[in-house]
Amino acid sequence: MEYIFSQIFVVLSYALLGVTYFVKNRRFILIYSVSSLVANAISYFFLGAWSGLVMCGVALLRNAIFLIQNKKNKSEKITWVDWIILGVLVIVSIVSAVFTYDGFLSLFSVFATMLYTVSVWQKNVKVYKIMGIFVSILWIVYNSFIFSIFGIVLECVLLISEIVGSVKYIKDEKTKLKENESLAN
Fold it and tell me: Which of 118, 139, 147, 156 sits at 20 to 30 Å (Cα–Cα) from 162?
């Protein structure tokens, strides 16, 4: 029964996360990510996947910090405070990994969390979308390690969503650039 509950929460988690790749605003990306992480943490709890569960906690902390910071500082420039926050999050991830280590494959949740952290931290939506592709590959490996069937399948679907969302975002950027160039001429 626990496995069934875990898979229900996995489905909810990935549905919410999939939305983030079609949203253009960093704030909404973070809000949907928080909702997704809560559902994902519950699924990892039911699976006994402690590394993934703890990384959800780290990711929730990260997103809360980034949401607060986003409200205070609307600038897209990276400041010294941003660097300190990134350093603290990396240290927390590494320390957490030490306590939840369950073989090399358990570290893939840590790698995915850290890469996702950098992708959101750097404040460029285009880079976020492209790095999401690599994050998904890491989560597919981790979900295989913990035998989360829906996690594997839905992460593959998310990977496709990330690719489509990235291509759409890049096309939209090129269209805007061409429009701006034609207006300038």
Answer: 147
Pair 9, 35: CB distance under 8 Å: no
Q: What are the C-alpha distances in Å from 151 to residues 59, 87, 121?
A: 18, 29, 25
Contact 86, 121 (CB under 8 A): yes
Q: Are 30 and 66 in contact (CB under 8 A)?
A: yes
pTM of the model: 0.82
147 dihedral zone (left: phi>0; alpha: psi -120 to 50; beta): left
* DSSP symbol at 147: T
Sign of CA dihedral 136, 140, 142, 143: positive
User: What band does 102 get if pLDDT is binned at 50, 70 and 90?
Assistant: very high
Number of folded domains that form the chain: 1
pLDDT in tens, 110-134: 999 999 899 888 878 888 888 989 9
Which residue range is the domain that position 23 belongs to? Answer: 2-184
CA angle (160 as vertex; 155, 161 as ends), nearest 5 = 90
118 close to 131: Cβ distance less than 8 angstroms: yes
Q: How many Å apart are CA 127 and CA 15, to the nearest integer? A: 21
